[in-house]
Write a structure and sequence with these properties.
The protein is an alpha/beta fold and 219 residues long. The protein has 2 domains: 2-130, Rossmann fold (3-Layer(aba) Sandwich); 136-218, Arc Repressor Mutant, subunit A, CATH 1.10.10. It contains 11 helices and 6 strands. Strands 2-1-3-4-5-6 form a 6-stranded parallel beta sheet, with helices on both faces. The radius of gyration is 17 Å and the shape is elongated. Keywords: DNA-binding, Phosphoprotein, Transcription, Transcription regulation. It comes from Streptomyces aurantiacus.
């Protein structure tokens, strides 16, 4: 796995690089600016880009803009965005365009090494890794959607964990239920959100995007 890192805090940037290299991962470049990371992506053609949301010169949305541009240049690139705190508009801007190979985590997760590495692997494998706190806030904002109101509390729990990027087995383990129970809840979610098996989309992705898109419109 070839990785590039964009983080303007030199200590965090180098610490993250050391952590990943210690795990046997290939950090091919680091940068302290959005422009620098885009140049590195063009040069090294990595598998994964890890980007901070706020970078010079304005420390507002440079990381998100760079992430969107990086995906435009290399659609197959997996992108993991890090943020010091939940920024809903940035999370939805990145995620509503598609969730394949995308992640949005709070920086505090980096300190929980196993969780961070698991999220990184999921993103690199084409999956999703959305911070539970981001999911919780987006889900709260999207509860006014009438279709989402159809869901039971347990179905909401399952959908929230789906949004984090967890598979059925991991969801079952987290909720302490059987795989069969999770499968039943997911079938019910699809039905209540009017997602037909005949739809030409991945219903799991569509269910997650349904409330992410609603949250984006309400931010």
């Amino acid at each position: 796995m070839r990785i590039v890192i964009a983080e303007d805090d030199a200590l965090l940037r180098e610490g993250l690089a050391l952590l990943l290299r210690a795990e046997g991962l290939d950090v091919v470049a680091t940068a302290g600016t959005a422009d620098g990371i885009l140049d590195a992506i063009d040069t090294h053609k990595p598998d994964v880009a890890i980007l901070d949301v706020r970078m010079p010169p304005t420390h507002t949305d440079e990381g998100i803009v760079a992430a969107v541009e990086a995906r435009r240049r290399r659609p197959e690139l997996a992108v993991l965005v890090l943020s010091a705190y939940v920024e809903q508009s940035f999370a939805t801007e990145l995620l509503v365009g598609g969730v394949t190979g995308l992640g949005y985590l709070l920086k505090e997760r980096v300190g929980r090494v196993e969780e961070f590495l698991d999220a990184l692997k999921r993103v690199a494998d084409g999956g999703t890794a959305i911070d539970p706190e981001v999911v919780a806030q987006l889900f709260t904002r999207s509860r006014q959607d009438t279709r989402l109101e159809r869901l039971s509390p347990r179905e909401r729990d399952v959908l929230a964990l789906m949004a984090e990027g967890l598979g059925n087995g991991a969801i079952a383990e987290r909720l302490v239920v059987t795989d069969g129970a999770v499968h039943k809840h997911i079938r019910s979610i699809f039905a209540k959100l009017d997602l037909s098996p005949a739809d030409q989309v991945d219903r799991r992705v569509a269910a997650v995007l349904r409330y992410l898109d609603d949250a984006r419109r309400r931010t």
